[in-house]
Amino acid sequence: MIFFNKRIETIPIFFASDNNYAPYLAVAIKSLLSNASTDYFYKIHILTTNLDKDICDKLTRLATTNSSIQIISLKDEIEHIKHRFQLRDYYSIETYYRFFIADMFPQYDKVLYLDCDIIVLGDISNLYLTNISNFLLGAVQEQVMAHYKVFGDYVERALDVKVKNYFNAGVLLMNTKLFRAYQIQRKFFKLMNEFKFRVTQDEDYLNVICKDKVKKLSLGWNKMPFEETGFDDIDLQLIHYTLGWKPWHYENVLYEEYFWQYAQQTEFYEQIYHGLKSYTDEQRQKDKDGFENLKMIAIEDINDPCNYRNSMYRSKNYITRGLTSFAKLPYIKGIYRFIGSQGHKLLYEYTRDRERQE
User: Looking at the DSSP assignment, which residues form a beta bridge with residue 239?
Assistant: First the structure.
C-alpha cells in the first residue's frame, strides 16, 4: 500500500507589537491557535521594533504542532524614517507596520493582519479562505464611526469616505499581490507627507488609499464589545477590545469572560490581572479625557479648509476648469466636439489617475 503525504496549506498571519502590548498579543495567539482548524499550518509573524528576550521566549512557546511563531525586528529598517510617523496616546510605531508587509514579504500573495487586542473564537482559516481576488482588502465596518456621529461626520467630511464603507483596520485580510501592484506602500508615504491624519491615523490612511477596493466582511469577524442592534452572538467569531473597552483595564466589559479564559492559559496571566487591579481612577479618567479630546480633534479636522476632502475637491475643480479652458481654445473646439462629453470625462479620469500615481 502506498501512502501519499497531503500537502498542508500555510496560512500567514501577522501581528505587530511592542513590550507593552505583548501580554495581550499572547492571549490573542492562544485563542487563535486553540480554535483553528488542524487542516492548516499557521505561520505567525510578529513584527516589532524591539521586544525583550524574555517576552519573545514566552511568545514563541505558544507555538503548536501546526504553527510557528517568528519574531521579526524592523528596528534597522525603521530607524531612518521613524520621524515621519504621526503618533498619539497609546499608539506606537508598530501600528504602521501593516503597510510594509506586502513589500517586505513578497513570497505571500495573501495574508491576515490582526491587532493584539483581540480574541479569536472562530476558525481563523475560514476568514483566510474568503475570496478577495478582486479587492485590496477584506475588512469589517468600523463600529465606532457608525455609533458616534462626530466620528461619522469626520470620515465623510474630512476623509471623503462614506461611514458605511469606513472599515476597522484591526482585522485585515490583505491581498498583498494587489498591494504590490497598486504600490500601496509608496502611496501611503506620499499621502502621509501631504496630510497628517490625527484621529485613527493608520486606519484613516488605509481607508483613503483603499477606497472602493474593499470587500465587506461579516461583523462577527471584528465585533467590538458593545451592543449592536441586529447582531446575534451566535455569529461571534472574533472580539476586538478597542478604545475604552479593554478587560485588562476595566471590569464588566462585554465578552470579558472570553479574554480571561485564554489569559489564564498564558504565562502573562498574573501580570495582566495585576494590571487590571492596579489600574487607577486617575488612569481611567485620562482614558475618558483622551476620548473626548479625540472628538475635539475630529471636529477641528472637519472644519479645516485644508483637510483631505476639501483639498481633493479643490483639485478636482481646478482640473475641471483647466480642461474647460483648454476645450475653448479655437483649434481644440473641433476635437472637443468630436470626442464629446464622454471623451471629456475620460480625459478627466485619466488626468486624476495620473495625479494619484505621482
Answer: 119, 223
Nearest to 165 by CA among 153, 179, 155: 155
Q: Residue holding cell 495574508?
A: 111
Please tell me the distance from the alpha carbon of residue 47 to that of residue 51, in angstroms, as a whole number.
9
Cβ-proximal residues to 250 (8 Å cutoff; 6+ apart), any chain? 244, 276, 279, 284
Sorting pLDDT into bands at 50, 70 and 90, what band is 2?
very low
| Contact residues for 116 (Cβ-Cβ < 8 A; gap 6+) | 15, 16, 17, 21, 22, 24, 25, 28
Residue 11's pLDDT is 98
18 Cβ contact list (under 8 Å, min separation 6): 48, 49, 50, 51, 92, 94
For residue 335, the SS3 value is: helix
Other Cβ atoms within 10 Å of 84 Cβ, number:
11
355 versus 176: which is more confidently predicted?
176
What are the residue ranges of helices labelled H in 119-223? Answer: 124-128, 143-147, 149-157, 176-181, 184-194, 202-209
Residues 6+ apart with CB under 8 A from 303: none
Per-residue CA distances from 101 to 28, 110, 282 (Å) = 20, 10, 38
**What burial class does residue 222 get, using C-beta atoms within 10 Å of its C-beta: 0-12 exposed, 13-18 middle, 19+ buried?**
buried
Residue 78: per-residue pLDDT? 73
Separation of alpha carbons 315 and 209, rounded Å = 17
pLDDT in tens, 112-141: 999 999 999 999 999 999 999 999 999 999
Instruction: Round to whole Å and give the CA distance between 241 and 64.
Output: 25
